[in-house]
Amino acid sequence: MSFGVGTLITGIPGMSVIDVLPGTTEDALRELQAIHLRHFESSYPWAVSDFEQTWLHGASQSYVIEHQWLLLVDGKTCGECVFHVNLDRKVILRHYMAVDQEVRAELPSGWLTAFNDFAEAWCDADSRAHGIELLAMMSEIQPKHVAGWKRMGHLSPAIDYREPTHGKHWKEFGDVEFVPMSVNLKLLPAGKQVPLREVTKAAVSAFLIDNYGLSESNPTVQSILLNCEQLG
Question: Which residues form the domain of 204?
Fold first, then answer.
């Protein structure tokens, strides 16, 4: 199945992206869903329904710009990067990032840094079109991955972060439950001029309150936000 070349990623020869949004083919959506399940079926299988809703209708919130990248190397699909820009909070939320192992082994050294720089530049263009300077990019990661991201200059503030089980779909399963995760925070130039507590609170609020639909009065959310306030 051919998906064309897509948009080439600066600094990674042969890698390109197709943003699976309204107007792209259903084949691209199905391939994105298949790749996601290949990497995340045991942990985030429900996300494929979110991908379809975005493909059908675009972003569900007026202050959010969504991206669903199907990744290709030399025209062959090999991964995903799903993220969005929260204009109100001035942060990028990266939800899923995965590249097939056999492809990663062939990519040049430093490819992940080049990829992040490309994604940040794309989001910067999104936000500047609205007159907004972004503060940071955040993802939720397992604690075992913190050290690797720190070597790339990312931060992991100690705020006892928790992610709701079932993500946006937690209401379908009764009372919300949480799983311990770590914050993976990349400060952007504007974010380096703002106290870390403010940037972290904005990013965490974008995930827990805006994205997952949790109440600020939820005791776990309250605790995490209070821990943000204690940062420098």
Answer: 138-232
